[in-house]
Amino acid sequence: MSTNPDAPAPVTPDARPAPAPADHTPLQRTVVRVLIAGQILGGIGMGATLSLGALLAAQLSGSSAWSGMAATMSTLGAALAAVPLARLAQRRGRRRSLATGSLIAGSGAVLAITSVAVDIFPLLLLALMLLGAGSATNLQARFAATDLASTQFRARDLSIVVWSTTIGAVLGPNLFGPGETVGKALGLPPLTGAFAFSLIATVGAAVVYTVGLRPDPLLTALAAREVDPVGGTRRGGLAIVRVNPQARFAVVVIACSHATMVALMSMAPVHLRDHGATLTLVGLTISFHVAGMYALSPVFGWLADRLGRMPVILIGQSLLLVSLAIFWLAGESQTAMTVGLILLGLGWSASVVAGSALIAEVVGVHDRAALQGFSDLSMNGAGALGGALAGLILSAIGYSGLGLVTMVLAGVIVVWSAVRGTTARPVVR
User: Fold this and answer.
1) Residue 276 region, left (φ>0) first, then alpha (ψ -120 to 50), else beta?
2) 29 CB-near residues (< 8 Å, 6+ apart)
3) What pLDDT band is residue 298 in, cutting at 50, 70 and 90?
4) Tally of CA atoms within 13 A in the half-sphere of 100 that contains its CB
5) Cα–Cα dist 56/49, whole Å
6) pLDDT tens, position by position, 87-138
7) Angle formed by the axes of helices 69-92 and 121-144, to 10°?
8) How many Cβ atoms from other residues are within 10 Å of residue 411's Cβ?
9) Could you give the angle at which helices 94-118 and 193-212 cross, rounded to 10 degrees?
10) For the chain, which end, N or C, has fewer CB atoms within 10 Å of the first or last residue's CB respectively?
């Protein structure tokens, strides 16, 4: 059997012969531009509120011990929204799905303001969960960039949309001050002014998706491929993963990489403060990490298109292992921590970009949204679990021990790649 990754894929139920698709290059360019605009707005909406969520959780609960519930509830909300939004995309298209997710996040912003006004902590937790739908929407947007992309540029287009999240994520936290000014002018409760910006941004994203994604990229791809013939049935994401080894591998790559990143990143501020770092240094270090996560994603997308998905996945896992080794061996050095967190972000970026590109092409277009939704569910679930367990591990064996333990996750991917010889051969051209 040929091992050439560029060899034609065998005809399977996921690879029915189809006529050559029309040239959708002009439409694809428009789709990518619309997704970039939506991602910037969505990033502003999330970045303007998540940090404040921790402060509000401590304020309404009366204890700083509850501040971590802000990130937990947001991640849980993203996980719960992933599959329903993917199903909506499969039935009604990306336009409806992305706009719906953005509006759900906007309702979360309104509910957050209300929760502070009436001083009800559980209502704030519900609001943060609804805001998590914004994260699920941003994740699905990267897959929307692949619906009409040609095989040779699929990872590049996906990575550009991932990169655009950086703009909103950087702008969002800088709206805290203006948000308070606007909040006072509107008579909003203290610390909730930024949620007004979040509401405007998420509604704006919904409008951008609704107006800009015409014709809908996923529905256009489905029509062009002439898939899902009479009598055919679409499968759920879990059913696909059970029978498709490449899909299973790609889902595990993304989930394990995300769990590793969240575990180390979420505990880094605590570790740095315990070793005397100032808040300014902590913020700067995390900024370097976030830059590593997104700034070079187009480079990894280009490499994934040129070298293949698997080589870039292995590059990502190698970067993760190097960063974890730095944490293990020199985790008490602030310089080493900064270098390690940058490499951690780069490893996450390479793994998620290449893994997402693989997700987009190991099944037919009729099953793609279901698999993507399951992947995002697994990704957010793994991140939530990683963040929860990281605190316990940090308390028991320290940050260096956390780095050593999480090496297992990257090791699983490397060993799996070597044993199974998984290739990045696309099923759907």
Assistant:
1) left
2) none
3) very high
4) 15
5) 10
6) 999 899 999 999 999 999 999 999 999 999 998 999 999 999 999 899 899 8
7) 40
8) 15
9) 170
10) N
**What's the confidence (pLDDT) of residue 31?**
95
Report pTM.
Answer: 0.80
Q: Which of 18, 103, 93, 112 is nearest to 427 (CA)?
A: 18
Query: Which of 156, 214, 302 shows the shortest CA–CA distance to 30?
Result: 214
